[in-house]
Amino acid sequence: MGKIKIIILILTCLTLFLNYYPANAQESKLDEVMKRGKIIIGVTSSAPPFGFIDEKTKELVGFDIDIGKLLAKALFKDETKVEFVKQTFEARWPNVQSGKVDCGIQVTTIYPERLLRVAFTRRYMDSGIGMIVREDSPIKRLKDLDDSKYTLANLNNPQMAERAQRFVPNAKVLTFATFSDMFLALQTGRADAAQMDVPILKWYRIQHKGKIRLLPELVSELSNNAIFLRQGDFKWWNVLDSLVCEMQEGVLYSDYKALFQKWFGEDPPPQRFYLK
């Protein structure tokens, strides 16, 4: 190959690189958020106390909603600089992947298979999965539920399906799109038990005191709920993860503690101090 052809090839490659790179090296979502002047967060509206519609005010409220406002306050010094997009649990992954939302705060547990689809911050809430039944139910323990005469309400996700098959394979299963639908099925007798995140179970127990109770066994290891976002954007992930860290152990802890007490009636895990 002659020198001229080599030079032409180099120039061609350089031109292609310069034309291609700016179009595909997308700016960080952080830059987009700050230019926009607000953060757009995907949330649920059917999983109290994390995200639900208040019956009196008809407004979207919940622990996850307040966490989103706390992020806006940290980024813009104004908690109103946030837009919440109500989405189904099935839509949460495609919505962050497409950029429709900047991140999701949606009572979402970190599972290894989910890490292949989205990125997670560190946990902002401890969780686990348990079972709830009506107070008058003859079901006292998990083994009692493992009977074909009983029906379990599940959320439509593979993790719940796997746990139902593992712990109560003989029970019938009804699958629902939302936690609210699951609880309604339990209330109306369509289901004899419901499988949910422990904080949600505790919330329903408080709201319906004397009418429902938790079975004593968990059907999962202790788990973590975290903020999720599109993969491959370290700058945006680093900011969100750092803010969650500050909620847990730093300058945002007092705000976080107030929210925790508001929705769960108890203190979050205490801050860690390293001085002796």
Description:
- The chain has 276 residues and is an alpha/beta fold.
- It contains 10 helices and 13 strands.
- The longest helix is centred in the first third of the chain and has 22 residues, at 3-24.
Percent helix among the residues?
A: 40-55%
Structural class: alpha/beta
Q: Report the mean per-residue pLDDT as an integer.
A: 89
* Radius of gyration over all CA atoms, rounded: 23 Å
Strand content: 15-25%
Number of domains: 2
Q: Which secondary structure elements does this structure contain, and how are they paired or packed?
A:
Layout: H1 3-24, H2 29-36, E1 39-43, E2 46-47, E3 51-53, E4 60-61, H3 63-76, E5 82-86, H4 92-98, E6 103-104, E7 119-127, E8 129-134, H5 142-145, E9 151-155, H6 158-167, E10 172-176, H7 179-188, E11 193-197, H8 198-207, E12 212-218, E13 223-229, H9 234-249, H10 253-264
Parallel strand pairs: 1-5, 1-6, 9-10, 9-11
Antiparallel strand pairs: 2-3, 3-4, 7-13, 8-11, 8-12
Notable traits:
alpha/beta; D-Maltodextrin-Binding Protein, domain 2; five-stranded mixed beta sheet; three-stranded parallel beta sheet; about 40% helix; globular
Task: Write a short abstract of this structure.
By secondary structure, this protein is of the alpha/beta class. The protein has helices at residues 3-24, 29-36, 63-76, 92-98, 142-145, 158-167, 179-188, 198-207, 234-249, 253-264; strands spanning 39-43, 46-47, 51-53, 60-61, 82-86, 103-104, 119-127, 129-134, 151-155, 172-176, 193-197, 212-218, 223-229.
